[in-house]
Design goal:
The protein is of the alpha+beta class. The chain is built from 1 helix and 15 strands. Keywords: Calcium, Disulfide bond, Glycoprotein, Membrane, Repeat, Sushi, Transmembrane, Transmembrane helix. This is LYAM2 protein.
Length: about 220
C-alpha cells in the first residue's frame, strides 16, 4: 500500500522515514519550518488504506494576537494579517500623551516584542488663587488636565494684571502666565492718605511730648 508522495513545503523542509518503501505503509514525515513560520501539522504517517493520517503539512506565517485600540488613540499596522515582522504604530488624540512604546513588532514566536501602550490625558501644573483674588475652573477629563479653563477675578478695589482666563493646552502648558491682583488707583490714594495722616499724627504727638519735657 502506498500514499501520495509528499513535497517539500514552502518556507520549510520535509524529513521522512520509510520502513518499507518510499511513501508506503507506515512511512512517516515531519515538517520543519523556517523562522517566522509554523507547521500546520507536526507529522503525518501513511496508513493501511493508502491515505495520510492528516492533511499534508505546510508552513504558514506565524501571527501575533490582535491588538486593542487604546482609548483616545489609534493603531496603524504595516500588515493586515499581523504576521511575523509586522510593525504597529500607536498614536493618541490631541490632548493625550502615549504611555509606553510608540511601536510594537510581531516576533517569530508569535508574540509582540513589548507591552501595548495606552493614552493618558495631558496634565498641566495645578493653579491657585492669586492673593486678593479668586479662581474658578471648568475641568476637562480631570483636574487641571487638557481643555481645563480657569477664570480669575479680584476683590473689590483690586484689578487683575494679566489674562482673565487660562486654558490648559495639548502640550501641558497654560495659555498664559498666572495673573496677579494689584491695588487700584483709588485704593492707592486711600493708602497714601492713611499714611500721610499717620505721619501727621505722629509728628503732632512728638511735638507735644517735646513741649511737655520743656515745662
Amino acid at each position: 500500500v502506498s500514499c501520495d508522495p509528499l513535497k517539500k513545503p514552502g518556507h520549510g523542509t520535509l524529513e521522512c522515514n520509510h520502513p518499507l518503501n518510499k511513501f508506503s505503509y507506515n512511512s512517516s514525515c515531519t515538517v520543519w519550518c523556517e523562522e517566522g513560520y509554523e507547521p500546520t501539522a507536526l507529522s503525518v504517517h501513511c496508513n493501511s488504506s493508502g491515505f495520510w493520517s492528516a492533511t499534508v503539512p505546510a508552513c504558514k506565517a506565524v501571527t501575533c494576537p490582535a491588538l486593542e485600540i487604546p482609548a483616545d488613540g489609534a493603531v496603524n499596522c504595516s500588515l493586515g494579517e499581523l504576521s511575523w515582522g509586522t510593525t504597529c504604530e500607536f498614536t493618541c488624540e490631541e490632548g493625550f500623551a502615549l504611555t509606553g512604546p510608540a511601536t510594537l513588532q510581531c516576533g517569530s514566536s508569535g508574540a509582540w516584542d513589548r507591552q501595548e501602550p495606552s493614552c493618558a490625558v495631558v496634565q498641566c501644573e495645578p493653579l491657585s488663587s492669586p492673593e486678593k483674588g479668586a479662581l474658578d475652573c471648568f475641568h476637562g477629563a480631570g483636574n487641571f488636565t487638557y481643555s481645563t479653563a480657569c477664570h480669575f477675578s479680584c476683590l473689590e478695589g483690586w484689578r487683575l494684571n494679566g489674562s482673565h482666563v487660562l486654558e490648559c493646552g495639548h502640550s501641558g502648558n497654560w495659555s498664559a502666565s498666572l495673573p496677579t491682583c494689584e491695588a487700584s488707583e483709588q485704593v492707592s490714594y486711600v493708602s497714601v492718605g492713611i499714611a500721610a495722616t499717620s505721619a501727621s499724627l505722629l509728628s503732632t504727638a512728638s511735638f507735644l511730648l517735646w513741649l511737655a519735657r520743656r515745662f
